[in-house]
Amino acid sequence: MISFLDDDLKVTKEYDADTINKATSLALLLAGVDVTTGTLTWALCLLLNNPETLKRAQEELDQNVGSERQVKESDLDNLVYVHAVLKEAMRLYPPGPLAMAHVSREDCIVGGYHIPAKTPVFVNIGKIQLDPNLWPEPNEFRPERFLTTHKNIDVRGQDFELLPFSSGEECVQGYLWP
């Protein structure tokens, strides 16, 4: 990545390589920290307001991990309910409620609206994830939906009902769970 940035510096005279490298590193660090912190904060808020869900998640953790050690990456596949809780938290409170801008390649019609070529378009992820046509009782915290009706929905941008990390080239790549 740094060599890529260094190549681009030939056309960027405003900033030196050190400034660009520091800014890029900071952006990557903040993106990772902010998404994790925000998701876990909302998940904890939702769990604290839903004691039965909290109890079920805790039981799954106790059964699969125990209280003597921390969760390991190898445990993740067994934490199906905890995974559902996190998906539901990201559905209700996506890390980025708007996807990164895309630009229309040609004139098109979207939802009855004319979009001229080369127009920046933002996908409202937050609105999609609360659409009652896609999610029964969309404002309710119901992790169980990811164990039944929405069991196979992926968070990596393959299923457009749930896009907490956007999709396509802008999709966040650091997500571990399937």
Which short descriptors sum up this protein?
178 residues, mainly alpha, Cytochrome p450, two-stranded antiparallel sheet, 4 strands, disordered N terminus
Q: What value does the average pLDDT take? A: 83
User: Could you say which overall geometry the principal axes of the C-alpha atoms support?
Assistant: flat
Strand order of the largest sheet: 1-4
How much beta, percentage-wise?
Answer: 5-15%
Tally of strands: 4
Please provide the ordered H/E string of secondary-structure elements: HHHHEEEEH
Quick recap:
With 178 residues, the protein is mainly alpha-helical.
Structure, described:
The chain crosses the membrane at residues 26-48. It comes from Prunus yedoensis var. nudiflora. With 178 residues, the protein is mainly α. Helices cover 39% and strands 6% of the residues. It has a two-stranded antiparallel sheet with strand order 1-4. A two-stranded antiparallel sheet has the order 2-3. A hairpin with a 2-residue loop joins strand 2 (108-110) and strand 3. Helix 2 (17-48) crosses helix 4 (80-92) and helix 3 (51-64) packs antiparallel against helix 4 (80-92). The two termini are 27 Å apart.
